[in-house]
Amino acid sequence: MSKKPNRRRTAVVLxxxxxxxxxxxxxxxxxxxxxxxxxTYECATKIGDRGAVSPVDITAERKxxxxxxxxxxxxxxxxxxxxxxxxxxxxxxxxxLGGDDQGTVQVKGVPNSAAVPAFTPIRIGTLTGTYTPxxxxxxxxxxxxxxxxxxxxxxxxxxxxxKPLGPPGRRGPRSRR
Length: 177
Description:
Layout: H1 7-13, E1 16-20, E2 32-33, E3 37-45, E4 48-63, E5 66-73, E6 89-99, E7 103-108, E8 126-131, E9 137-150, E10 153-160
Antiparallel strand pairs: 1-9, 2-4, 3-4, 3-10, 4-5, 5-8, 6-7, 6-9, 9-10
């Protein structure tokens, strides 16, 4: 049985932090970026449990009254025992909100643009989503559950395990209330 990650410690190490303002003050809010950090995932798959480490980068860029969130994986976190034809695999992930907001934001990827050979790591690529702040403050985005939907089912559900490896993310400026 795996240990549940310490969310507070994880949020300090792997986050993109951004000072957010409610719509009236959003124009002054900066983009945020964290250092690329290795995240250890424990994956439950249809063919058994797997583990992998992937470098992950999370960014938040202001777009009007919201933030465009981008989560990028530098390498795959699981593999498939069968070839995945073009267009049958779509990743999604939940980012855990911290700081002055709580909950999750979902980011999604596009279907695979080429076939994935059997027994090779599934490339996750870039996942995107939108976060709309409702109050002023600093919000962090931390890697949460990653789901790989393939061949009509959730073929792999991966949870971050332990503390991410790498430098801590930079924190964004705090808004004035």
